[in-house]
Amino acid sequence: MADNIRIQCINKSDRMSAHERIKFIGGVHNGKPWKLSLDQASQGIESGKWRFYVSVNNDTVWVIVATSASGHKYLKTQNDGDQPNNLLSLPECP
Predict the structure, then answer these.
(1) Contact 49/60 with Cβ under 8 angstroms?
(2) Whether 46 contacts 69, CB under 8 Å
(3) pTM summary value
């Protein structure tokens, strides 16, 4: 069974852009800080090892792996109706 882990911060290639690519995700799980690259997180989701979620303003949504038109994998929240995407609005990871 997959471990459910809350994403609490991200690192993007351009922090000021709401649409730039996420490079790392992170947070605190079981009292320990963690940080994963996009590739590590994608592989963990696809293998069923982890299920990531985001909670912003009491709105919790699951994070999924999507593929761009150019074939690059990226992380996004399931359709939550919020713009910008809750994942992209998280603070910067240390």
Answers:
(1) no
(2) no
(3) 0.85
